[in-house]
């Protein structure tokens, strides 16, 4: 039996509009608590190596009390736009179109929705009706690596069509 070696055909990024530095995050968290951060939390956040983060809304948005529906709406709108941008760029760079894709692996820790975002994007972007979706949620910073592993396993199981990892 021959070995199947998954490989990357293209890479692309899509980022939310707003940026915030890690120092600003620390300040915001301390302000929100009204006291200094606990030393262990400050140590963990200070050692992440993260210099800045991209966020969907201006920093002030996150200070207010927002309803679940409002936060879900922001996640849905932003994640759909970012999905479309990243997928379009990656497919273009790989010389592929949505119907060429057999499976979509989608990783997010920010939010979740039902039906899942990739399920919604199949029709919106013209993926084939037989495109399978694997939404992964809750893995935090490890999500990308876990997504790569899942995508590689899915490709090995069905190498006739590429897997899109978002």
| Major β-sheet strand ordering | 4-3-5
Give the CA-based shape. elongated
Low-confidence stretches: none
Give me the strand/helix succession. Answer: EHHEHEHEHE
Structural class: alpha/beta
Alpha-carbon Rg, integer? 18 Å
The main pleated sheet reads as: 3 strands, parallel
> What share of residues is helical?
40-55%
| Strand composition percent | 5-15%
Number of helices: 5
Terminal Cα span = 30 Å
Average predicted confidence as pLDDT: 92
Number of strands: 5
What do these coordinates show?
The structure is a single chain. The protein is α/β, with parallel strands linked by helices and 166 residues long. It has helices spanning 22-33, 39-46, 68-94, 117-125, 143-157, and strands at residues 18-21, 52-55, 103-108, 132-137, 163-165. The strands form 2 sheets. A 3-stranded parallel beta sheet has the order 4-3-5, sandwiched between helices. Strand 3 (103-108), helix 4 and strand 4 form a beta-alpha-beta unit. The longest helix has 27 residues, at 68-94.
């Amino acid at each position: 039996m021959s070995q199947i070696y998954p490989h990357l055909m293209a890479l692309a990024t899509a980022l939310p509009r707003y940026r915030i530095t890690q120092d600003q995050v620390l300040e915001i968290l301390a302000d929100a608590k009204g006291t200094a951060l606990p030393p262990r939390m400050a140590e963990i956040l200070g050692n992440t190596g993260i210099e800045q983060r991209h966020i969907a809304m201006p920093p002030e948005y996150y200070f207010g009390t927002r309803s679940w529906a409002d936060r879900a709406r922001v996640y849905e709108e932003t994640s759909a736009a970012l999905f479309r941008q990243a997928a379009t760029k990656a497919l273009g760079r790989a010389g592929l179109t949505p119907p060429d894709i057999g499976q979509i692996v989608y990783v997010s820790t920010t939010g979740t929705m039902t039906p899942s975002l990739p399920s919604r994007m199949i029709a919106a972007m013209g993926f084939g009706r037989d495109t399978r979706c694997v939404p992964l949620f809750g893995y935090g910073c490890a999500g990308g690596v876990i997504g790569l592993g899942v995508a590689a396993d899915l490709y090995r199981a069905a190498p006739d069509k590429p897997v899109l990892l978002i």
